[in-house]
């Protein structure tokens, strides 16, 4: 996470020169779907490649249905990819079995969107936080150790002594999300996938939970994959950003590079539509025309071309590969006609406001 005026933390703990903790290459995932009396293959992910470093926050943005949750579920090994590789500390977790697989499962945990739905109302906060140890029995074998660690974890997320005996409904939304975070930390993970972790919370509470995640990252060196529809939240927390469209990554790079000068027309449109970013000087809003195509019958070539004002015949004929920005090799976009440096005219009918 990066430091901003609103966060209490310091700069992120990511080491840009270090070996990636997680390396994902060419990941593809399809789901069989019944449609029109026959089974068709829906490509939820196609050719996904990225790295995640220790202590880094990777923001994942894109419209509903673009594949964010499928990617998250694959990282948690809840989905098996059709093809491609995942390397975690050099190991492909999909090849592991038995005790080694169980061991590995500790390393990636999840914080869910809705702290109301994701906590069992019949369990105390202490039971919720210690539940993962039922599967991973070796971690804290004695009740005394478990009790001490629960109190420690609740303290780490800013809850008070005695809170372990209370039930979820006795806590506010922000406090419930703190319990969810403590539960995710119980197995001492390297990566936490945060799926819209603050979108169910009041604005004032959102900042507190984001600050907590930031503090925990500094203390523990944990990496986050941070999924959010809210671009201002992603800009606030992410070190790097990945923009997804119809199952593919259209752009990725450092947060300030991507938000400051989006290369892909889709990213430019997405970011121009975020009010707070627009006020920060992004210029005109680009309104995308047309519906999001069905992932069952995506366009040929560049998947964004049916909604892109810059599309040419070339975009229908071939699929663009990610190409680096000449001034910043870590910032890439899969586009034959990336956005220029200067503000570009958007044709009438595409609704530049
Ligand atoms: N189990 C499944 N069976 C069939 N199709 C699926 C399945 N899971 C996801 N999909 C489809 O895969 C595509 C990607 O879905 P996914 O949930 O990953 O998107 P998303 O970006 O997370 O969306 P949202 O922001 O709404 O959660 C969608 O078209 C979705 O309908």
Automatic annotation (TrEMBL):
Skewed-composition ranges (Low complexity): 1-15
Gene3D superfamilies: P-loop containing nucleotide triphosphate hydrolases
Domain called ABC transporter: residue spans: 22-271
PROSITE patterns: ABC_TRANSPORTER_1, ABC_TRANSPORTER_2
SMART domains on file: AAA
Superkingdom: Bacteria
Region (Disordered): 1-20, 317-353
SUPFAM superfamilies xrefs: P-loop containing nucleoside triphosphate hydrolases (SSF52540)
One Gene Ontology term of the molecular function aspect: ATP binding
Keywords attached to this entry: ATP-binding, Nucleotide-binding, Transport
Family: Belongs to the ABC transporter superfamily.
PANTHER family linked: D,D-DIPEPTIDE TRANSPORT ATP-BINDING PROTEIN DDPF-RELATED, TRANSPORT ATP-BINDING PROTEIN
Protein name: ATP-binding cassette domain-containing protein
